TrEMBL record, chain A:
UniProt-annotated location(s): Cell membrane
UniProt family annotation: Belongs to the binding-protein-dependent transport system permease family. CysTW subfamily.
PROSITE patterns, per database record: ABC_TM1
Lineage of the organism: Bacteria, Pseudomonadati, Pseudomonadota, Betaproteobacteria, Neisseriales
The name this protein goes by in its record: ABC transporter permease
Coiled-coil region list: none
Transmembrane segments: 7-31, 60-84, 96-120, 126-149, 170-192, 230-249
Domain ABC transmembrane type-1 stretches: 61-248
Superkingdom of this protein's organism: Bacteria
InterPro entries: Bact_Polyamine_Transport, MetI-like, MetI-like_sf
Keyword Nucleotidyltransferase belongs to the record: no
From TrEMBL, chain B:
Source organism: Chitiniphilus purpureus
Pfam families, per database record: BPD_transp_1
Protein name in UniProt: ABC transporter permease
Assigned protein family: Belongs to the binding-protein-dependent transport system permease family. CysTW subfamily.
UniProt domain ABC transmembrane type-1: residue ranges: 88-296
Superkingdom field: Bacteria
Locations listed in the record: Cell membrane
Keyword line: Cell membrane, Membrane, Transmembrane, Transmembrane helix, Transport
Major subcellular site: membrane
InterPro entries, alphabetized: MetI-like, MetI-like_sf
Transmembrane segments: 16-37, 92-114, 123-146, 176-196, 232-254, 275-299
Keyword Manganese carried by entry: no
Membrane topology term: Multi-pass membrane protein
Gene3D superfamilies hit by this protein: MetI-like
Amino acid sequence: MKKVSPWVWGAAALVYLFLYLPLAIVVVFSFNDSALNAEWVGFTFKWYRMLFNDPVMLEAALHTLVIGLVTCVAATVLGTLAGLAMYRWRLRLLPALVLIPIAIPEILTGVSLLIFFVMLNMTLGLVSITLSHIAFCIGFVAIVVRSRLQGMDESLVEAARDLGASPLTAFRAVTLPLIMPGIIAGALMAFTLSIDDFVISFFTAGVGSNTLPLEIYSRVKVPMKLNPEVNAVSTLLMLLTLSLIMIVSKVAPSALRAQ
Amino acid sequence: MRSNRLAKWLISGPPLFYLLLFFAIPSAIMAFAAFRFPGDYGGLMPFVDVDPQTGARQVLINLDNYADFLTFENFQRFFEDPIYFELFLKSFWYAGITTVICIVLAYPLAWLIARSPKKTRDLLVLLVILPFWSNFLIRVYAWMIILGPQSYFSQALNGLLAVFGIEPVSLLFSQFAVIIGLVYVHLPFMVLPLYANLEKHDMALLDAAQDLGANAWQRFWKVTWPLSLPGIWAGTALVFIPALGMFAIPDLLGGTDSMMIGNLIKQQFLDSRDWPFGSVLSIMLTLAVLLLAAFAGWAGSRGKDKR
C-alpha cells in the first residue's frame, strides 16, 4: 500500500482539530471561574453546582428524559416492525414514509406537525413533542434493523423451519436473537436523537414545556445572558451522548456506519 | 398464503399507520393550508364560513398565496418586492458555499481514512462521527464563544489586522459566522460517503498514472477526482439539503442580513403567525429539495456509468 503523503496527513490533522477544538472549548469553559466565556480565570465547579440548583434546567432535563424514554420504546417497536416488513416484502408506501422524514429538512416536519396538532385542538406540550419524536425516529430504527437483517444468514431460519418450528417460533428463537444487536443500537439511536432534537421540539413544544435543547437555545439566543451554566449542561449532555454512542459502537459497529 | 397476508398487515400495519397519521397527513394538511386565509388571531381561518344571519355557507379558499409567491417571474412584482426570491437565492448560496467548503475539508480526511490500515480506519471514522453526535446546538454555541468579540481568537485576529492598519472586525453575527457554523455542523455528512467511495478505488490506477509520468496533482485531478464523483454527489445531497432548511444557525451566529428560508418559515409560523404563507414557503422549500435530490440522484448514477 502506498504511503499517505505528509501533506494529506497535515491537512487531515487540521480538520480533526477543527472538529474537536470548539467542543473542547465548551468543556474547558464549563470549569472557568468567570461569567464571561472569554478569558480563563481559574478552575471552579460552581457552574455545575448552580446547574443542579436551577429548577428550570432540572425540569427541562426531566422532560427530556421522559420524552426520550417513551420515544425510545415506541420508536423501537414500530421501527423494528417497519424494518422487518421492509426486509420481508416488496413494499412501496412504507419505505417512502420511513425514508422521506429523514431526507427532508427537519423544519418541514416540524411546521406540518404544528399545523396538525393545532387543527386537532391538541394542547402543545410533552405529548405532542413525544408523538413527533416517535415519528422521525421510526425511520432510523427501521434502517438499522433492516441492515442487520440483510446481513443475517437466511439458512438458519430455514433450518429451524425444517426442524418443525412454526414461523413465530422460528422468529422468536432464531431471527430475534440474531437481530437483537441491531434493535438495541436502533433503540439507543432513537433515545439519542430524541434527547438531542431541537428543531422538531421547537415547533411542537408550545408554551411552558421545555426540553434541554430548547432551554439551551433560549439561553444562548440573547448574548447578554450568555451563561457558563450552559457550558456545564452541554458538557454533561456530551458525556451522556458519548457514552451512549460508545455502547452502540460496542453492540453493533455496523449501526454507526449505516448512518 | 392467507396467513402470510395477515402477517404482512400485522407487521407493516402499525408503523405504516403511525407514519401516515403523524407524517403523511400533516404534510398533506400543510399543502392544503397554503390555500387558506390566516385567522384573525393567527393560525388558520375556519375553512367553512357560516353567515350568522342567513346561515349561508361559504367555502373559503385562497389562491393568492401561491400567486403572490409565483409572480416572481412577473418583473413588476419582482422589482416591487423581490425579497422572498432573494432570500431563496441567498439560502441556496449559503448552502452551496457550505457544500464546496465541506468537499475541500472532507477530502484529506476521507483520503487518510480510506488509505489507513483496517484497525486505524474504524477509529478515524469514529472520530469523525463523535462530534456529530453531540447536540447540534452545543456545536453552534461553541462557535458563539470562539467568534465572540472578547474571545482570544477575535482579539488575536483583530490585533493582527491592526498591524496592517485594518479596522477591527466583528466575527460573530456575520455571514462568515453562519457559513462556519453550517460547515461545522454538516462536515461529517460529506466525509462518510466520500470515504466509502475512496475506499473502493483501485490504487493500481494511480501507480499506472505515475508510471506514465503524471505528477501528484495530475494523478488527483485526472484519476481520483472523476472516480470519486458519486461519493461527492451523495455527500452534496446530505450537506446541501439540511443546510438549506437551517434556521437555528443563522439565528444564533448570523446578523440581520444573514436570514435563510428556514428563518422566514419560522417567522411566518411563530412570529407573524401567517400560516398559509408559511405553508407556501415550506412547499417551495420541499419542491427545491425534491428537485435537488432528483438531480443528485441523476448526477450520481451518471458518475457510475462513466466508471
